[in-house]
Amino acid sequence: MSGPTIVVIGDALLDVDLRGESRRSCPGTSAPVLERTTRWSRPGGAALTAGLLSEHEGVHVVLLTALGEDDAAAEIARGLGTGVRLVSPSAREHTPTKTRILAEGVTVARVDEGCDPDFEWPDDMDVRALIDRASAVLVSDYGLGTTHQGVVRAAVSEAVGRVPVVWDPHPKGAAPVEGVDLVTPNETESLLAGDGERDTPWERASRLVDRWRARAVAVTLGEEGAIWSDARGRRGRSRSWPMGVPTDTCGAGDAFAAACVAARAVGTDIQGAVEAGTSAATEFVDRGAAGAYATSPKRRGPAISLLTPSPITESARRGGGRVVATGGCFDVLHAGHVELLRRARELGDHLVVLLNDDASVRTLKGRGRPVVPEHDRAQILAALECVDTVVLFADPTPVRILERIRPDVWVKGGDYDPELLPETSVVREAGGEVLTMPLLAGRSTSGVIERIRERAGAPAL
User: Fold this and answer.
1) Which of 34, 100, 152, 420 is deepest in the core (most CB within 10 A)?
2) What order do you get walking across the sheet with 97-103 strand by strand?
3) Which residues have a catalytic role annotated?
4) Which domains does the chain have, with CATH numbers?
């Protein structure tokens, strides 16, 4: 049985650490001089939350966020890897990037770029349809404008009451929509609701329940764990286990919120969800917090997108790479599929596989298909060395997604006539070419399925 699908909505950013040694200061100042510098990066904000959520066994994660058309967006996609389905309309001029400058492990400065919250969500992105696929929703607000978008708020409001909605707030973000299942401010954020530090965390949580009309509020208290209060007057506490003095707690709140929504998605009550969140946050800090997820240098890696082109594909195009695309159901991957993909990749520098989602496969192939669910099919394709990105799409044909990707070459199997394909005109109008390739004889998904059914003694479909 497939696990829950959790949609994370929020502000993704690229976190960069510029690490160096310092043995002296700038003349006339106390500013350190960095030498032997190395650059490390990792997905941050909502992207970190989505990545942490993908580590929960059986959970399928979709991240909806607004990125720019730049290399920072591609780094985020690479960092997420194949564990997260990325939906990233290019709504921003630049992808938010925060660069910490560290001397001997101590942060001495931070440079923020592209963090302007003023942007407009594209009209052609159907947020409601995306959330309709969800078992739960997590809003990860970093004050960069996503939660102020009317289309986002409307879609989340419609999800409230139908599926669990957890909201991780930010002082510069918008207030949670009414009726949210659980809101997870930290202690500093909760002070906005109280009478200074004289109020207890429970009193502040209770006020926030009323202010936000939330079903429950959990306030995280760092090494003291977390407390919660709900709209029925119930309250509880979850304590973290003792550990050494943490050198970095960046991202602990993301780990807490991710574990809470994963627990709520499978029916765990608020107390159990808060306990899961506290445990996850403590373990996260204990193993090095967000800094443990940094990588250096930029690595080549596949990514899986949903409905929108991958930032990795756009980065390859900007770098002058030849983009090749092919598509299909790829249900029960066999040698014929692999040979087609390998030969397609040889035609260019970057191969995009457009993959029919489960609903469109059923429309095309009928009852009993697909045999392999979309999440698994995407993971298998992305694991092939010749595949650079996979894009899941919901239509019977890939025409709409091809209009966005604009490949230099569109490849189909030799059993198709290019002049009869609905994709041909779209590809050619964008300046691309359409090619067909001979198929390996005797290889087909239908044939594989029938042979399995025959050996199992099952009736034919």
Assistant:
1) 152
2) 35-45, 12-21, 97-103, 106-113
3) 254
4) 5-22+29-293 (3.40.1190.20), 321-456 (3.40.50.620)
